[in-house]
Amino acid sequence: MGFPVSLRVDDEGVSEEAADAVFAWLREVDSRFSPFRADSEVSRHGRGELRRDQLSADLAEVLDLCEHYRVATGGAFDAWPPGRGFDPCAVVKGWSVQRAADLLRAAGAGRFVLNAGGDVVASGGPWRVGVRHPEQADKLCTVAELTDGAVATSARYERGDHIVDGRTGRPATGLLSMTVVAASLTEADSVATAAFALGAEGVAWAAARPGCEVFAVDAAGGVLRTEGFPVASRSRAA
Question: What is the per-residue pLDDT for 141?
Fold first, then answer.
């Protein structure tokens, strides 16, 4: 899927097959939903080879999520950006990793951390999750403390100006990073990407989403965060 995935499970009695199922699911997602694979369902739909009524229930769900955030952002978030092909990756990543976490819970896991390229689902904490500084790779800009929930960050430091404002077709540059904490990674990751696409106005937009807490760094390096963002206590060991 283009990013490293790591899993830690602290429960006794949870079989290795549960972890195997997580990685098997993520490999399946890569095969079915990658816009970089010509034979994937996503690519075939993007080329018009599969109509909406011919799609799997999973892709139909992803399309509904994409449309939800497109409407909610007035078009800033768009899986069909101008000049580019169909690319629902901004939704697929969080959605698929949350599904993987649900597989773990169904297998009896209660205390675990699933980290997919820096976006994290945590269960049975407290867990401390570092958020990389957007301009200094060896530093953190904050540390979130989670018991049960998810944290996702959208930024420019890994892939450059890859997030496009669908209203203009140009890269979104109003923020350096946007971190969102929510109950699920489906929501945290989608909201973080959508807010980043909105630019500076995305901070207030994300903060107004029910159940979302925000930590953002704007283009000038200023920090904006909601009162409820779960910043870890300095008194706790890392």
Answer: 93
